[in-house]
User: Fold these one by one.
Assistant:
Number 1:
Amino acid sequence: MTRVLLTAVLIAPFVAILATAQAPSPTVTIRAGRLIDGRGGQARDVVVTVNGDRITAVGAKPGAVTHDLSRLTLLPGFIDTHVHLLWHFGKSGRFDNTGETADDRLKAGLENARVTVMNGFTTVQSIGEPGDLTLRTALEHDSLPGPRILTSVRQINERTDVPRGNRDQLATPDQLRQAVRAAKDAGADLIKIFASASIRDGGKQTMSDEQLQATCGEAKTLGLRTLVHAHSAESMKAATLAGCTQIEHGVFANEEVLALMAQHGTYFDPNIGLVLQNYLQNKDKFLGIGNYTEEGFAAMQKAIPLNFQMFKNALRVPNLKIVYGTDAVAGAHGHNIEEAIVRVTDGGQKPMDAIVSLTSLSAESLRLQDQIGAVAPGLQADLVAVDGDPLTDITALRRVVFVMKGGRVLRQQ
Ligand SMILES: [Zn+2]
């Protein structure tokens, strides 16, 4: 008797899981007036069939549908490979979080997550702090609207894990390898590295070639991707040669280093359309804090046209994989799509290429191309509908009227 009871107790959870898995998933159909599939294809009057959290069919289909979006353009959920989801303006209205509790920070992050997904971004990579994990758990636990979150949990620079009291020393390769292992143990999906100074401080290389080799080498051994903040051409070159997988910003990139990145298959994530513009628009909320000085703002103002020219140069480099990232900070969340609009209007990118970057190419950079980034059978049902045709008017991407993430409708007209 005891044994039977025990068996029943042990089996019960598994039976429940099986029942969930075997229950027929409700089938949902969506008719799109225009479909842009994320891989460079497009079609008119298409029905997308969704079972549970997956897309099961895409094609012509007469008859009634669950969601008639025949006046809209349907796309895969957007992907931002570089955000700071917890950054926000504090109680003073400025970028000053003194006096805040961890719960205040979490609440701000939940709101940032909500506005991000409501504007079409169903996956983001947060670069990154331990609070990202709390945020991800809170979203999942309470079924709150937010994007799928990947996080670096922490960031690594030239002085990481140097013991207190020795702060004038640089980290040894062993200390950096240890920091990479610690990040993985803490739950990091990727490693974030600072190879150069901030644009507000000139952007020069700050980690040595040897430090970069140790950090990116250890990450590679552990199967982790590496995102490297780098502005100067020499810091980008060092990161590329060290085998790091993606380079952020790159305002001072030259054609030689961009060609080297293309040759090594290093992803490039230029941020030309949102982060600096957002800092300038919200200058009064940042000025006087840390390196947000008048000189820093002057450097950011100067970098905007440099970025446009650098991006035009990057577009001319054959086989360079330009992914989508905004570096969304306080004030920028929910406006992530502005980067795509600027890449097209000021950077000269073709709208279809900007959309492929925003979807399937960014999914590939996250090693999630078999899960997200396209409207195709077998992939997650992450779908966004916009009012207008972004191929002729890229600003249509701002007019999001429908969002589905993993088969769940989060926004509807
Ligand atoms: Zn950043």
Number 2:
Amino acid sequence: MRASLLEFHDIAPEVRHFVFEVPEVEQLQFKAGQFVSFKETLNGKKITRPYSIASLPDRNRFELCLNLVHQGIFSPYLFAMKPGDSVEMSAPLGFFTVRDPAKEALFIATGTGIAPFRAMTPDYLAHPNAKQLTLLFGVRHENTIYYRDHFEALAGKHPSFRFWPTLSRAESSWTGHTGHVQSHLLEAIGDRRDLDVFICGLKAMVDDVRAILKELGFDRKQIVFEKYD
Ligand SMILES: Cc1cc2nc3c(=O)[nH]c(=O)nc-3n(C[C@H](O)[C@H](O)[C@H](O)COP(=O)(O)OP(=O)(O)OC[C@H]3O[C@@H](n4cnc5c(N)ncnc54)[C@H](O)[C@@H]3O)c2cc1C
């Protein structure tokens, strides 16, 4: 199938929110947390790159959150797209989805690793038996807390949802969490060891968090992760 770009807007320097539609289907079927793979021939080579869907199923539309990798191949191509342009894509895939919404959960993201959680958070909270959910989101500065309004609105509506952005280069006016996501794991987990943890972002952070969780006594099966690199 082909995905046609409807619109985009920049949500931070070199970070863009894209809205696509797939004109040949009426409803694009996927679960919150899955990704699509884009394919294009670039510099004479067929290139494929996966991107997490940052929206809930809505007719034939889906949204993405991407950062520009300057030395990269595919992200500069996507950043050059204009509304009306299209790109080849595969049907949504992936196992980074909430398994048991009746189980307490911790979501951990850095940077554009927030993309799948933009869909998984409302998906989890919509479940009638949803338990406590914490989203720990690491970025550098306050003005790069992507989708802040979206998550704050969810936290306002669902007392069982805690939204904890943490800033690694916080300005002095910031009163929230500071430092890396790794430093707030214990605070988020407390003495609980029976929750599911979902981690999304670059390899270094994901591996670090997994190692800490294993040391704390978490089982492999309780840790679900998506590495972007
Ligand atoms: C399942 C899955 C879902 C993904 N979802 C997203 C998403 O929602 N948003 C998104 O921006 N990316 C996402 N990615 C990464 C994406 O597929 C590409 O790797 C990324 O756009 C870079 O591609 P490129 O061709 O421009 O650069 P490449 O030439 O492939 O890579 C250049 C370098 O950039 C590094 N890199 C890869 N991804 C990133 C990143 N996001 N930020 C900084 N450095 C990176 C790689 O380690 C590599 O060293 C996802 C990856 C996977 C495996």
Number 3:
Amino acid sequence: MNNKNYQQTRWSLQDLFPGPQSPQLEAGIEKITNLVENLEKRRAVLVDDISQDVFLSVVKDMETIVALGQKVATFAGLFFSEDTQNEIAQSLMARVDQFVSEMTNRTLFFELWWKALPQEKAQKLMDASGDYQYWLEAIRLFIPHTLTEAEEKIINTKNVTGVSALQMIYSSITNRYVYKLTVAGEEKELTRGELMMYVRTSDADIRAKAYQELYRIYGNDAPILGQIYQTIVRDWRNEQVSMRKHSDPIAARNLVNDIPDSVVNTLLDVCKTSAPVFQRFFKLKAKWLGVERLRRYDVYAPVVESDKRYSFDEAATIVLDAYTRFDPKFATLAQRIFDENHLDSEVRKGKRGGAFSWAAGPDLPPWVMLNFQGKSDDVSTMAHELGHAVHAMLAAHHSIFTFHSNLPLAETASTFGEMVLVDYLLQHETDETVRRDILFSQVDDAYATIMRQAFFALFEREAHEKINNGASVGELAEAYMQNLKEQFGDSVDVADEFRWEWVSIPHIFDVPFYVYAYTFGQLLVLSLYQQYKSEGEAFIPRYTKILSTGGSKAPVKVLEEAGINVADPAFWQGGFNVLIGLIEQLETIPVK
Ligand SMILES: [Zn+2]
């Protein structure tokens, strides 16, 4: 316990640069340019018989360039987040974006050379590369799927006016939608974000109307949005399967995540067979809402509304106490974000919405942005983002290339931090309503990140197959309704307009098969948390090791070394067991 009084403040970016127009920032940009020029001049040293020393010196030059580049890019990004309306910030962002992409192109020759190097020679170099090893290995994973330089150039060039253009058109069409909703007799014109706030209100009628309006608009354009989807999916198969020789469409994404295909299949299979877990929850929720059966409109309906508020000082104290109770080391690291003024928690006009943790490099604590307004969600968000920050700090001994964990593990410390907080709150909170609210929100969130995303991925897998066999947009919508039926069973009534839900999910258009990473990350954390509950203190060193490995090993290897076998369905089942435990707790509470 400490007796500090935490105040909401703006962060300081002094650890990066004194300001957006400072000579130090200009000097940084100039230094990167010089380093890149020097590296270009050394290009001739990249030969098959390169010595270990020369090779490492090139890697170190790359590291220096990337590390400084990240500092410049982080400064620009953070300064812009502070006030997105600031013109100096806007032009700095644009300039830095352009600069970074130019420098990346100019140093691309290293990666191309590295991929072309014969395996035996590369292996020798990697084996003696210490912390850089996995980074070097990961680049080479793509060798069997890399085409000739000329073909790669054609793909890049044609993508700009091809699939990327289609994705842009999808986003242009859908971002200009205006939704109409009558609330308390007044017709409002809303953005999608504003409209979706109403699916979480306690008014059942408004919840239904909000969804109906969403799918009225998407349904109107479904023929064209569906056609865009079909084309993106065909492009994906043509490139990833026919040309790059991935075994199937999802395999291309699995390789980016460096997760074996069989592990992803196991994960999705376990989700499919665990559909009844959430069905049980929806049946319970129906009782609490006093209805025979839940409608799809009611999935996010609030069951209990507690309007408990937290001051910033209370929130910070609770989060740090919860972390301390887990492991004082975690709390000490989280505390640094406050002490070193790397936290911007104020709500200000023009400031970016939401929250994030942004690591500039392994040598500095990350910067954390919150928009703290005192709701219980804001306290969880604080625990979440500080978890990201602790994760980065635990991996600070790695290089710029290897300290940041891969996507499937990127949400581990953040989600675990939230669980630590929930446990702490449940132990200290005496108000029954607040406790109930915490438990219900937990399961609601787990549904949204685990099951919903898993079923999106299952739909994608099916849709890619069906489109390959010539399925029409109508047939895809039919397959989507079947997918929902399997997900909800007899626990939820799904209205017909939900057949257009899939055309409203940007992820499946923009980054095919991205969504299962959410399922992977959340279920992983639930399983880890289960292990913590059963093993107690003994678990902490194993867990700390997972985090401190950062991105210096393949995700499956990181977990394997901690005794976790993600190829075993029982491991994923363990995550569902935690949820069953939560649901059982809720079932014991008498319905009022
Ligand atoms: Zn996160």
Number 4:
Amino acid sequence: MTATQRNVSEKQARQVAEAARESEWRKPSFGKELFLGRFRLDLIDPWPAEQPRPDADEFLRKLDAFARSEIDGQRIEHDARIPDEVFQGLARLGAFGMKIDKEYGGLGLTNLHYCRALTLVGSANASIGALLSAHQSIGVPQPLKLFGSPEQKKKFLPRLAAGEVSAFLLTEPDVGSDPARLGTVAEPVEGGFRLNGVKLWATNGTVATLLVVMARVPGKGITAFVVEGDADGITVERRNEFLGLRGLENSVTRFHDVFVPEANVIGGLGKGLKIALTTLNTGRLSLPAMCVSAGKRSLAIAREWSADRVQWGRAVGMHEAVAKKIAFIAATTYAMESTLDLCCMIADDDRNDIRIEAALIKLFASEMAWQVADELIQIRGGRGYEKNESLIARGERPAEAEQLLRDLRINRIFEGSTEIMHLLIAREAVDAHLSVAGDIIDPEAGLNRKARAAARAGGFYAKWLPTLAVGKGQAPTAYGEFGPLAAHLRYVERASRKLGRSTFYAMSRWQGKLERKQGFLGRIVDIGAELFAMSAVCVRAHAERAHRPEGRELADLFCHQARLRADALFDALWDNTDSLDVRAAQRVLDGRYTFLEDGVVDQPSDLAWVAAWEPGAATVEDVRRRIPQAEA
Ligand SMILES: Cc1cc2nc3c(=O)[nH]c(=O)nc-3n(C[C@H](O)[C@H](O)[C@H](O)COP(=O)(O)OP(=O)(O)OC[C@H]3O[C@@H](n4cnc5c(N)ncnc54)[C@H](O)[C@@H]3O)c2cc1C
């Protein structure tokens, strides 16, 4: 069977996603409460204390020195290759074991220190950030940490901590956002499984010696395996090239009758997607770390350039149109960093559930950092569009504006595209409603189930709805201890209740059809992201007011900007072109407007949009790259 022959209905795809969801809430969640109209500031205030880790601080110092002296970001960009010595130097520092516990030879860093390391190294070259993040946020270390057996940890983690690279292989030509179509098969055989399939776009896939592979075990479901990269039957067929991240070692990898021992199943048969999703709970924090990196670089470039460049008698930064962009970059960078740090620290102290918060910061940071980089290009004018090498050749100072934009773009697509993050977060935002009232709107629920749900829902809504009418945010002196930021927290409290009310109206209006109202749900989630970021900046700025009073200015600025965006999103919940757009898209797909495509030169091609693959042995040469291990 080829992957493209797999026929999966919309309903089956949803069922697979639903089955992979963690359905229990064992710990409090700021995000879940926020969407229910309950602003639980107490869950994030006071700002969590950083765990003192002198060893981690020392590691960051060494990494900083290494990044400055040994990583030539421009060379990596030019050669589209991270040199072997950089792999080896990072290995010597322990960077491949940042998230691996000390007992297995790793550094056992907290999420906070890990993300700081990614922010730092990613500023030298984003491909290195992606290498380290794919290796330990989604590659072998994290799933083994959460779900691995003691034997698996003992066997694999020391190798990874010492510098062997790992990769995560889920995507296939026909499987992107929809894992229900997974075509790679792991057939049970004596002592293990035989793997057949083709995996697409595996970051680190060309260099990795240990892989997490998602494959379907017949009758059991999608399962995660640790696979030796050098096992017989594995061919790295291609190294892919992208818009940005030119140093990325990203593969097409073929599995032909690859034997995987039974002992290499992670977490049990059929648990693969749950493992992938749970891994991403904290794994999702690494992409925002790269976005923070880009924000910081953008701010520095914008500051220096806008003061230096004079046009029409003023530094360009003093023209209002440019000033607004600089203010946006500064405020957004402060917000991305504050929200990420908060997520990391609440993940580290393990008191709260952070699955919604981590998803919100991934969504927020990837979208906002893209806008930041776009504004930076505009501020730099023509030079923003010019490559570094070209700038240097003309005798001008390089500023990696266009590279930042290219490197950042993928963050809105991988580890859950923005559209999928909207759906995933919206699912959690409406979870309380679905668990009490889900059967009322489920067409497959019988009358008995519907009646029971109606009684349950009656009780829940009778208690919950009145709580949305009034709250602390209406009291003019509420949150007074936050001084100049109190008004913003009052806004968040009011907006949170409005968010809860809006979701309830939408549930009553559209019922089961709400899940298809992606425009509405996306806005609900985006408002939640703005409110979360506002809360984070206020709490941080307040906590740091003694030693960094200027943080309050940035928090205030961000909150003013975020409120405008949130208000616009609230308005658009009920006043939009969503239905019109869906109808128009249908007409576009039907070919009604093809006249509009006339008058340009098209690029005819006989190739399919998605290439079919056939199982079997590779017919092309293996292009894997072997990185010599670092000497201790
Ligand atoms: C540089 C790079 C590195 C990557 N690294 C890895 C890796 O290490 N391991 C790995 O397994 N994969 C990796 N991927 C794959 C990546 O995770 C996928 O590209 C991503 O999941 C999106 O899938 P897709 O590209 O097939 O898009 P598609 O699923 O084809 O989606 C196309 C568009 O439709 C939207 N869409 C899809 N379904 C829905 C829906 N239900 N509702 C609304 N909108 C929808 C998407 O958001 C997108 O805009 C990488 C990709 C790239 C480009």
